[in-house]
């Protein structure tokens, strides 16, 4: 073996060095507090050490009153307060009442000196908001406490409010500004209930995931010894599980017949945050019943038409079982890949946050009369001594937004794009490294004439070392091509999001076609890369040669590929379905307190679907991790099997390396050589 695709290896190293530099620069300039904590009108954080502000930030709720034709419009006054206002009150009213003024003082800026200044001047100098409205804290910000009573929109039990300038307004004017805030508030309430469910059920969730892991491990161990029986048992069990699901859905559907409100359609009900409401509708259980019936029918038909090919797939699974049995450490290798992917995700996410918070506080000149400096950038430290205050006496230097005018800030979008691109490249590289390592280990099993005597002592570590020493460049090349396509797909999704409101139907059609084409291209590249990595692990050739050889080898055996490989994938899918379905049904009966033996043990929940879905998703990921090793083993042995058939003829000079069972199945023999 020799080093392959050296140029791509060097390019990857240079890109990683550049990525580290970008991360260091981002961590130097960024401040994640800008994402979490609100600021006042000066850009100072609320409730942070080293600042004179209190924990909460409140936007000036009089921002709908633009004032006397400001040029440009003055930004909303933001003040840090210790708590949100709980009553209607205007400054003009409070200034004539000492008790009210003392309450109002907590919502003014530190420059406010009480009644030493006229009320109108206080409002003009933006030392206090013009009015207060009953508000509720959300994400450390105060939003109007909007509520609906009998279809009437109210804030603090009132339908009108005074805007602080003598005008009475309807609270519906606050609705548009706080609509998104109310959605967020409802979402937060839902999230809090979900969090409560997790706090009382987390250990049961862990037990469910452990059961899924043990079931997956037992299933794989049994496959090693009883592959044929396990496959048929698995098929029967999946059919029975789906059959029980059909029976349960029908019973629930029949039980709801005649109950009040059960005949309401899903469209009439609309979206509900409490998903348990849908389980009281007959239409919900009818939809589940139809889906399960269709799935059951499809599986039965596939089994009928592919019954002869299943026997060949069983032979491949048995061979894969023996290979995994000799390389048991391969079952734990996905944990290494998962750990490396977590590092990639963590680095990308932290860099993205620091880049997005690298902007500096930008201050602009705001004036309520004509001023030539209005809208220009200013510095609060030197503003009072500048010519601006001389020419525009009522001008103010106020915080406008976070931005910057340096070269670094101008190219932030480029750095963010580079961050996304490097994430895809490194993530694909990690996945490729895992695939070529497993392929190398299983290929060493297949090409050992005397199994396992001719295998390396540590096949997995040997394959991992070969991959890093000789084929880093090839892995970088394959992952680079895939990363480019994935970045293009991200750009297309972004353009599609921006063009949703557009009326150009041709542009939407063209964009949809491009999205479909690049989706297909990504799927094809993943399939090609996977088989190319297997050829790299076997022969040590470069990426292009390996991809070409793998592609034409598969094309020459397209029928075997379509039947044997895909039938095996289908059987693995059934295995995942059996494990996830069994654990999911067990979790359903437990958390809904339908198992009498442990009925009192199940914790009380707001939404019992929260732990059930968590167990189902976790079980699928665990089963997928175990079966992905098996899938890579079958794919590797399949390519080795095809190469063996094409390169060897069973003679003494070119004996078959396949196992005795495979030779018997294909009616092949080794002449003059003892069976392996």
UniProtKB/TrEMBL annotation:
Key words, A-Z: Antiport, Cell membrane, Glycoprotein, Membrane, Mitochondrion, Mitochondrion outer membrane, Phosphoprotein, Transmembrane, Transmembrane helix, Transport
MF-aspect GO terms: antiporter activity
InterPro entries: Choline_transptr-like (IPR007603)
Transmembrane parts of this sequence: 7-27, 202-222, 229-247, 285-306, 327-349, 422-449, 470-492, 532-555, 567-591, 607-627
Cellular compartments annotated: Cell membrane; Mitochondrion outer membrane
Single GO cellular component term: plasma membrane
Catalyzed reactions: choline(out) + n H(+)(in) = choline(in) + n H(+)(out); ethanolamine(out) + n H(+)(in) = ethanolamine(in) + n H(+)(out)
Major location category of this protein: membrane
Membrane topology, as annotated: Multi-pass membrane protein
Protein function: Choline transporter.
Family named by the database record: Belongs to the CTL (choline transporter-like) family.
Record's protein name: Choline transporter-like protein
Source organism: Melospiza melodia (Song sparrow)
